[in-house]
Design goal:
Elements: H1 2-15, H2 17-26, E1 38-43, H3 51-66, H4 70-77, H5 81-97, E2 102-106, H6 116-133, E3 142-146, H7 155-171, E4 179-183, H8 189-206, E5 215-219, H9 222-225, H10 233-240, E6 245-250, H11 252-258, H12 271-284, E7 290-292, H13 304-323, E8 329-331, H14 337-350, H15 352-363, H16 374-390, H17 395-402, H18 406-412
Parallel strand pairs: 1-2, 1-8, 2-3, 3-4, 4-5, 5-6, 6-7
Helix pairs in contact: 3-5, 4-5, 5-14, 6-7, 8-10, 10-12, 13-14, 14-16, 15-16, 16-18
Length: about 425
């Protein structure tokens, strides 16, 4: 009785061989590596090797002035007092030990258009500062540059800056392990394919291993979301990146402005933003490409009421992104760091008891009022690992709560195989 099914299976293997290969190549799954909770953008002319530490100090000083206690921060952000009290000291420790997780020296909008000699100098100085920053205590584990776009008016300048920065980094030693490049204002699949070629040629020119250079795509133009042929351009961009794309970053204000949305209404929680990010999320699912939300341009500066209002907004937006599966966002000011970590830590700790109980039940094959399947167990373990990576929870707390150590959770989250 099984001879027919065996023969059919052989036929199916032949018929589906190409589809199997394509699925494996296009949808390899999550890379199983740490994802930063944010990306900090600093204009190239303002960046030094001390910038990450300076941001941490500025964030702590603001916290000391405007919310010196957990109760004060809870009142300022309108978050639960108990939960804020649970994470307040952790936030302060983070601002001391690793205030910036991902840093981008910005040669694009944050820097503007300068004479070539001036940008050349900034590129060389920025490379030296990046190399030095990568070896400082509390250095960002991820760092890199955003160069000018591949649109015709800025193409040559962007390429020259990228080349100069790579040359400067290599003259100081090996490239930083967490080096990331950001390709902005992408409007066509051809630009992504061109970036792949640029990376390969730069690797060859600088004696780097093939595949060493990888990049993020900034989704900040309508053409990157919906093409003139009616297709989701961003999905085709991921394929065109040939495995070099590490992330899709939503650009709040360029995208909103391009749609004609009034300045007062431009925000990462606008319906138009939600649509673009939903398309990005679908396009990236299963590909191993990470997602990042955009930023808010409301800064926590000035009098206490203004600072507290900006913190409330930022904390709400961070939590909103986390709930929608965007675990990373942009931060444009040191004052955003306290609420970035506050909202992130609160998010991962709030659900830890129930998450841990479900993991225990799943590993122990116990029946509970929630029937978790392998996919949900994977998501549960992934959430705990994200909390570990950013400092929301400790390894000891995880073992005590779940009964599993990091290695076991990584297997459950399918980051590694058993």
């Amino acid at each position: 009785m099984t001879r027919v099914s065996d023969q059919l299976a052989d036929l199916l293997d032949q018929h589906l061989a190409e589809a199997d290969r394509e699925l494996q190549v296009r949808y390899p799954g999550d890379p199983g590596t740490r994802q930063p909770v944010h990306t900090v953008y600093v204009p190239a002319d303002r960046f030094t090797a001390e910038t990450p530490a300076q941001w941490g100090r500025a964030a702590r000083e603001l916290l000391d002035r405007q919310a010196p206690t957990a109760a004060a921060l809870a009142e300022a952000t309108e978050m639960p007092t108990t939960l804020v009290g649970e994470v307040y000291d952790r936030v302060r420790d983070k601002l001391i030990g690793e205030p910036v997780e991902d840093l981008r020296v910005d040669f694009e909008d944050g820097y503007g258009h300068r004479p070539d000699e001036e940008e050349d100098r900034a590129a060389r100085e920025g490379a030296a500062a990046l190399a030095a920053a990568a070896h400082r205590p509390g250095a960002p584990p991820f760092l890199g540059i955003r160069f000018k776009s591949f649109e015709a008016p800025t193409r040559r300048r962007g390429l020259r800056t990228l080349d100069l920065v790579l040359e400067g980094l290599l003259s100081a030693g090996d490239l930083p392990a967490g080096l990331l490049l950001t390709l902005p204002k992408v409007t066509s699949v051809a630009q992504v394919a061109a970036m792949v070629d640029v990376c390969a040629r730069l690797e060859q020119a600088h004696g780097l291993p093939a595949g060493r250079l990888r990049f993020e795509i900034q989704v900040e133009t309508p053409q990157a979301v919906l093409g003139g042929d009616g297709t989701a351009t961003v999905a085709r961009m991921i394929t065109a990146a040939a495995g070099r794309c590490t992330g899709l970053h939503y650009g709040t204000y360029d995208y909103s402005a391009a749609l004609g949305i009034a300045a007062a209404q431009q925000s990462l929680d606008h319906p138009a933003a939600d649509h673009a990010k939903a398309v990005m999320q679908l396009a990236a699912a299963g590909t191993g490409v990470r997602l990042s939300d955009g930023s808010t341009n409301v800064l926590p500066v000035g009098e206490r009421d203004r600072v507290h209002a900006a913190w409330r907004l930022h904390a709400r937006l961070v939590e909103r992104s986390l709930r929608r599966g965007f675990y990373q966002g942009w931060d444009m000011h040191p004052g955003h760091l306290p609420t970035r970590y506050l909202a992130t830590y609160a998010f991962f700790r709030r659900d830890l008891p129930s998450t841990a109980e479900r993991i225990r039940a799943y590993l122990g094959r116990r029946e509970t009022d929630v029937m978790d399947e392998p996919a949900t167990a994977q998501a549960l373990a992934g959430a705990v690992l994200r909390g570990l990576d950013c400092g929301a929870v400790t390894a000891e707390e995880v073992v005590e709560a779940t009964g599993a150590d990091r290695g076991q959770l990584e297997v459950l989250a399918r980051r590694v195989t058993a």
